[in-house]
Amino acid sequence: MTPFSLRQDRYRELLRTSRLWRNLKYRKWHGYGHRSTVDPGQGDLALFCATCPQPGVNLKDNWKEDPEQWKFTRGYVFNGNFSAEQLKMKHPEDDVHLSDGKAFMTSRFPYQRHLAVAKEIKQKITCNDYRAIDKANLIRQHLIYTGIGAAACTRHGCFVPHTVVDFQKGERQMNMDYAVSEALKYNTDGIRRVILLYDIMCQYWKNLHRRFQSNPHLSYPEGMEILRGIGLFHVHGHKDKCY
User: Fold this and answer.
1) How many CB atoms lie within 10 A of CB 114?
2) Which site among 33, 94, 118, 243 is 20 to 30 Å from 237 CA-CA?
3) Do residues 233 and 240 make contact, with C-beta atoms less than 8 angstroms apart?
4) pTM across the whole model
5) Is 53:74 a contact under the CB 8 Å cutoff?
6) Contact (CB, 8 A) for 147 and 81
7) CA 152 to each of CA 77, 127, 169, 184: distance values in angstroms, whole numbers, following the listed order
8) Are 129 and 121 in contact, with CB atoms under 8 Å apart?
9) Domain definitions of the chain by residue range
10) Would residue 51 be called left, alpha or beta, if left means φ above 0 and alpha means ψ between -120 and 50 degrees?
11) Which residue, among 199, 188, 173, has the nearest Cα to 221 in the 3D structure?
């Protein structure tokens, strides 16, 4: 019998197997099996807030006929996280994605195509709270991603599937634009009103429609009313003219 100390280390193989096992379990839990005729779509392997209004999930069949449509307003809050950074890999070609864009992270290639044509519109900074974000616009050579940005519901803080984006520098508008676009389109068929909360909304909103119109990879449902605001936690760092 081979002594334990002389056995070959199989930890790498164990990690690979555990990834495959988790991927299979996620697909099973969401109704995708070996005989499924369709593959999971964007965000299909993730769950959203159970209380936020979702057509076909938790709304009645005749909800569009309700005169009090304000009850079906969807609320989102956006923010960035600079602790979720990623080091550059020695062999990035070995990084195999088993469920690219199927859960909370956005699909890689559509997001990259968006970044390739997106333009960061220079604008005068009039808000003190925005300056802290602007300082994060620095490239760190040892990192491939400096952080992430995401959308969550304002009711219970549940992340919105297929809205988590990577930062290449800092919390740039072009990054958050994609998260906003995906959030506005996530299961919002028939939703007429959406509220967006962002800690730097005073600066972010200025050219939002202009950026969306000039980028073929950004869109939101036609006729949707978009309201904006700054969350109570961050609003005290702003000036009166910010809102």
Assistant:
1) 20
2) 118
3) no
4) 0.88
5) yes
6) yes
7) 5, 24, 22, 12
8) no
9) 8-39, 40-242
10) alpha
11) 188
- Report d(CA 84, CA 91) in Å as an integer: 20
Distance of CA 58 to the CA centre of its chain: 22
Q: Which of 167, 170, 174 is nearest to 137 (CA)?
A: 170
Are 107 and 46 in contact by the 8 Å Cβ rule? The answer is: no
> Quick one: tokens of 110?
């559509």
Percent of the chain as helix, strand, coil, to the nearest 5 = 35, 15, 50
Tell me the two tokens of residue 86. 């990623």
Q: How many CB atoms lie within 10 A of CB 126?
A: 13
Amino acid, single-letter form, for residue 225? E
Q: Which amino acid, 168? A: Q
CB 53 within 8 A of CB 59: yes
Encode the chain (243 residues) as per-residue pLDDT tens digits.
556 566 688 898 999 999 999 999 999 999 998 777 888 999 999 999 999 999 999 999 999 999 999 999 999 999 999 888 888 888 888 888 999 999 999 999 999 999 999 987 776 666 765 555 555 566 677 888 989 999 999 989 999 999 999 999 888 999 999 999 999 999 999 999 999 999 888 888 888 999 999 999 999 999 999 999 887 666 666 666 666
Q: Can you read off the two tokens belonging to residue 9?
A: 């280390």
DSSP 172: -
> Residue 20 corresponds to which amino acid?
L
Q: Count other C-beta atoms under 10 Å from residue 208's C-beta.
A: 19
